Amino acid sequence: MARREYKGAAATTTITSGISNSSTSLTLASATNWPTGSFSFVIDPGLAGEEKILATSRTGTTVTIATRGYDNTAAASHTSGAVVYPVPTAIDFDEANALVNIPTTKGDILAATGAGVMTRTAVGTDGYVLTASSSATNGVTWAATASSLPSQTSNSGKYLTTNGTSASWGTIDLTVYATVTTENNNTIMNIMGAY
């Protein structure tokens, strides 16, 4: 389902002309704080002809309608001056409730199998990492790390190096050469290093 839009403090208003039970648009007397995207609203609340409607959009005071008789109500005709205001519907609460109940186990995550469709991905094996996988239904899978660091035991002071395929510990072999000479009563010390 397409995302529905909500806005706070949407004003209760009326429609400026009557609509039939199959009209696909209506005009509001005022649209203060009304959503502009897809949203639901009620018309003639509390009356025998109360109807909920799913709107596609709103431009100015004109509302374009997607679904009449929404949220288990029946499409009906409404006269000019009928009261209208935005409302949430059962599906708004049911979708959120369903989503939070998909995970069943500690460590579960949600992943999409398509637009607006979430599924449970069970927690992976300890030490595994979440990896993108085009062959997995939800696009991800748990996998062992592609490579691991060599053991750190007994390798204090060494540096990590790689040959482009695997990692290993290396040491720096540094030889220091020093010469001391005296010239014109000055002592000169030359120090050079090579590794």
> Cα-atom Rg, whole angstroms?
35 Å
Q: Helical residue percent?
A: under 10%
Q: Beta-strand level of the residues, as a percent range?
A: 35-45%
Q: Could you give the distance between the termini?
A: 66 Å
Instruction: Note the main sheet.
Output: 6 strands, antiparallel
Question: What is the architecture of the domain at 13-90 at the second tier of CATH?
Answer: Beta Barrel
Order of adjacent strands in the largest pleated sheet: 1-6-3-4-5-2
How would the global form be characterised? Answer: elongated
What average pLDDT do the residues reach?
A: 88
Number of strands: 14
CATH fold annotation of the domain at 13-90: Elongation Factor Tu (Ef-tu), domain 3
What's the CATH class label of the domain at 13-90? Mainly Beta
**Class of secondary structure makeup:** mainly beta
User: Which residues sit in consecutive blocks of at least 5 with pLDDT less than 50?
Assistant: none
Core attributes:
single chain, 195 residues, mainly beta, Elongation Factor Tu (Ef-tu), domain 3, 6-stranded antiparallel beta sheet, two-stranded antiparallel ribbon, 1 helix, 14 strands
What does this structure look like?
It is a single chain. It is built from 1 helix and 14 strands; from the N terminus they run ββββββαββββββββ. It is mostly beta strands and 195 residues long. Among the domains are: 13-90, Elongation Factor Tu (Ef-tu), domain 3, CATH 2.40.30; 93-143, no CATH class. The strands form 5 sheets. Strands 1-6-3-4-5-2 form a 6-stranded antiparallel sheet, with no helix packed on it. It has a two-stranded antiparallel sheet with strand order 7-8. The protein is elongated. The model has no long low-confidence stretch (mean pLDDT 88).
